[in-house]
Every structure is written in C-alpha cells, then in structure tokens.
Design a protein that fits this description.
The protein has about 230 residues and is of the alpha/beta class. The protein has nine helices and nine strands. The protein has a five-stranded parallel beta sheet. Strands 1-2-4-3 form a four-stranded mixed beta sheet, sandwiched between helices. The longest helix is centred in the C-terminal third of the chain and has 15 residues. About 5% of the residues have low confidence.
C-alpha cells in the first residue's frame, strides 16, 4: 500500500451520488478512483447496486482494488487497465460492436481501460493489438474484422499516425486515443495528440492523452444509440 493511502471503510464519509445520470446521459456515474478514499468508493458502489446500476471505477490502485474485492466478491479487477467494475444483476445482452485497435503492445493499458469501459456499458468489443504503421500489412489483414463496427477506437503513441490510416478504411467514427508511449520528443503524448488532431481523415476525433475511459464511453454511446 502506498504511503498515505487509506483503504479503511469509513461509514461516515460523505458523497452526493448522481443516481439519475443514467436516465439523463445514458450511463450511470463512474468513479474516478485516483485520489478517492476506498471507503467512498465502497459506499458509492453499494448505493449504485441498491439502484440496480452497474458499478465502475477507473484509475484504481492495487491496494484499493484488493479492498474492493474483499467487499465485493463478484467484482472484476483488471490490473492492466487499473479498473474495477461490478455488473448489474439486471444486465441484459450486450449490443452493438466496437473495435479497439492498438498501434503496439505498449499501448495495451489504455486499450484495456477502453475495453473495460465498453464491458461496463454493455457493448460488444473486439480488441485488435499491434497493428501500427511500422508494419502496415498487419492492419490491412485485419480490416475485415472491424469494418462493420459501430465505432473504432484507435490507441497509439509515438507520432500517433494510426488513426488517420484506420479512418481511410472505414465509414464509421474513429475515436483516437493518444498515449504517453514514446521517447523524449513525444512529450508525454503531446506529439501523438497533435498529430491526431491534425488528421486528414474526416471521421477521426480525438480525446485526451491516455484517456481510454473517455474513448470507450464515447464509442459506447455511439453503439447504444445506433442499436436503440
């Protein structure tokens, strides 16, 4: 456990859960775990379960995940994604199809966060890894697997070129997620993000650096609304 990290269950901690967010926005409230006491996350999850809502927390440390798993045996902890989620007992069949592509295996943690977000949202997801522009033939061989998707999430670092290439193959929104993978001049993902923002592919939109959750959430909205 990191110094100063609280994994106790404080029954007196306060929170104001937005239980009506699913009705307004399509999905329930999501917990950003970094900086939150695990006691708060536990109480929020209990309240959501009482409402019949699925639970999802991002940026969850290993110590917090261990405490959450003790409290919620049915919970699903993904250490690569740093997420913890609990499916609703009333969850129906998953809908739609979203493909998540990575340029390289170093982008996997961000892609996994997107995958976990899609699972929480009840959307079918396909993960295709290691199809970056350094070996373009790898992407061409896989296009048939995602050409029919409702949306495509492309996770890439370095120069961030992959979303533009993918955008030239599909007639659906391409959500580009820049990662902080790269050497010094990548500037912690800034180079990838700027490259993606300047994409000449008109169907590419861009979210923040390492924002796998945001990419997954947007793609889930697209898929869910398409299949209403």
């Amino acid at each position: 456990m990191k110094q100063g990290e609280d994994t106790s269950v404080d029954k007196n901690c306060e929170f104001d859960l937005d239980v009506e967010r699913e009705e307004r926005c399509g999905f329930p409230e999501v917990v950003y775990g970094q900086g939150k006491e695990v006691a708060s996350i536990i109480r929020i999850f209990h309240r959501q379960l009482e409402q019949g809502q699925p639970c999802f927390a991002t940026r969850v440390s290993a110590a917090k995940a261990k405490a959450l798993q003790t409290e919620f045996a049915q919970g699903l902890d993904n250490r690569l994604a740093r997420t913890f989620r609990i499916e609703s007992p009333h969850a129906g069949a998953k809908v739609g199809k979203v493909a998540v592509l990575t340029a390289g295996t170093s982008d996997a943690p961000v892609a996994e966060e997107a995958m976990e977000t899609l699972a929480w949202a009840g959307v079918n997801a396909l993960l295709i890894q290691d199809v970056g522009v350094a070996g373009p033939e790898r992407l061409r061989k896989r296009v048939h697997q995602f050409a029919d998707a409702d949306a495509v999430i492309v996770v890439a670092g370095m120069e961030g070129a992959l979303p533009s290439v993918v955008g030239g193959y599909v007639a659906v929104p391409v959500i580009a997620v820049p990662t902080s993978v790269g050497y010094g001049a990548s500037l912690g993902g800034m180079a990838a993000m700027l490259g993606m923002l300047n994409s000449c592919a008109s169907n590419v939109c861009v979210v923040n650096i390492d924002a796998g959750f945001k990419g997954g959430y947007l793609a889930a909205l697209i898929a869910k609304n398409r299949h209403k």
